[in-house]
Amino acid sequence: MAAYVLACHGVRVLMLEAGRDYDPVSETPMFQLPREAPLRGAATDDKPFGFYDATVDGGWRVPGEPYTSADGVNFMWWRSRMLGGRTNHWGRISLRMGPYDFKPYSRDGHGFDWPMTYKDMAPWYDKTEAFVGVYGSNEGLENTPDSSPGILQPPPAPRAYELLTQKACKGLDIPTVPAHLAILTERQDADRLSKFLWPNNPLAQRVTRESMQDRAACYWATPCGRGCSIKANFQSPTVCLPPALATGNLTIVTNAMVREVMIDRKGRATGVHYIDKETRTDQEARADVVILAASACESARILLNSKSSLFMDGLANNSGLVGKYLMDTVGAGVSGQIPALENLPRHPEEGASALHMYMPWWLYDQELDFARGYHIEFGGGQRMPGFGAFSGIEPLTEGAYGQKFKEECRRYYGSFMYFDGRGEMIPNEDCYCEIDPDVVDEWGIPVLKFHWKWSDHEIHQARHMHQTFAEIFEAMGGRVLSNVETDGARAILAPGQIIHEVGCTRMGDDPSHSVVNQYCQSWDVPNLFVMDGGPFVSNADKNPTLSIMAIAWRSSEYLVEQLRHRSFR
């Protein structure tokens, strides 16, 4: 996003990508069936989300790039070594943070407040949603902000299991509304949107309009996680980078593993030192401004490895907070079977391959044994079966085999559902990453060591998730097939498993208690910016990618103004 915004303003940008080049248009196996893949597309240690997952050279393990954890800690760090990174893999759930989310400390005394408000961010959410293409609806719900008119695309129609869930949740006073996902349900109005995004900027209007005209609407056929050759879903290689490249102001260098940020005698950033992974040689790239957007933990790693006589504990770390207050989303899930969905007529039900509906947090006015809350994502239905699709049926078939087993498969297929909670984590000082002094990666770069401890808030929240999901299954006349834990410590998923890690370079309005200001600009090194999830002050129950992009757009506009005033000269 930063490259797109800066290039549209005429700034010359060099982007260094640690992974290889990647083109979703030519590399996406959109229409291959599971039977055409090794192991029928089943998950492996190297491809935990299955053979067709778009992630290249990465996952929770990256060849030649280890990381470590403190005793008793099992932090899971997902990395994608490819152009576009995780935007090729993510679920594309795009939820705005609300007014409460930017001022959580003021509401309940836990954690910290952001240095800006939702009102400050609302225009940038509008721009980001309009640019990437987000479907959804405005429901006027508490702390679930509406978008401005003409911004959201129409949501797809609910599927059978979603309508049944909505009916059951109505009786439980749980709102079930259209989800917000970065997938086009119709072609973008390129002329209108390009003018809305870039008034008085003919170059930006042209490249944005042409890029939007090159995108097609989803035709509800294949999983988004494979990538999208028609550019219907949001991936930065098909949405952000083409218009940025079309300006002539962006240069991309792939297989460039950044080791550290270089500084001059005055402590200003002068560029970066990186390893060319193809030639295995040391290289330097010099610039007037350096932006780190390598992901929250990777950017912290670069800063902590950028030591000098001016910054003995790592660059931009006078506050001592680089690597600190690491957060992930609280996750817990329950699966079950719904008799009312048995023996349904066969019909295409792929849809957007993800959520058409979800449940935003609804208990803001209740006293609970945990602060904050969670939203609910759910799924099921009659999608294209893959490896293991019928493995959950066996316990229900009373030992059936042969023709009887086939009949049971037809009976039960499409009647299984899952509910997943995605909740807010309150930052705590026991969750952080630091440089491991004894381990380096394949490129000789010291690796990160992770420390983690959930607080009682997160543990109690995970227990509440399990109880709620069991109640929903009961209201649907279904049966729970997984354990419903009364101990939240057994319900909660491992840290990092939701792949929503944020924090490590917290923003704020006090240099002694934050790493960057509200525009992601380092307090200690004014021509250094961090524009990823690192500056997050809190981790709301809203998936972070939309906010990362909106904050990066806002910060990039601020950077352009600084460049115009020659603030870094």
3D architecture notes:
It is a single chain. The protein is of the alpha+beta class. Helix content is 25%, strand content 16%. The chain has helices spanning 2-8, 24-27, 99-102, 104-108, 118-132, 160-171, 190-197, 202-213, 236-239, 241-246, 296-305, 403-412, 456-475, 488-491, 545-564, and strands at residues 13-16, 68-69, 177-178, 250-253, 256-263, 269-276, 281-286, 290-292, 324-327, 330-337, 357-358, 374-380, 416-423, 432-440, 446-451, 479-480, 502-504, 528-530. The strands form seven sheets. It has a four-stranded antiparallel beta sheet with strand order 12-13-10-16, covered by helices on one side. Strand 14 and strand 15 form a beta hairpin. Helix 5 (118-132) crosses helix 15 and helix 7 (190-197) runs antiparallel to helix 8 (202-213). The longest helix has 20 residues, at 456-475. The mean pLDDT is 96.
Brief summary:
The chain is 25% helix and 16% strand. The protein has helices at residues 2-8, 24-27, 99-102, 104-108, 118-132, 160-171, 190-197, 202-213, 236-239, 241-246, 296-305, 403-412, 456-475, 488-491, 545-564, and strands spanning 13-16, 68-69, 177-178, 250-253, 256-263, 269-276, 281-286, 290-292, 324-327, 330-337, 357-358, 374-380, 416-423, 432-440, 446-451, 479-480, 502-504, 528-530.
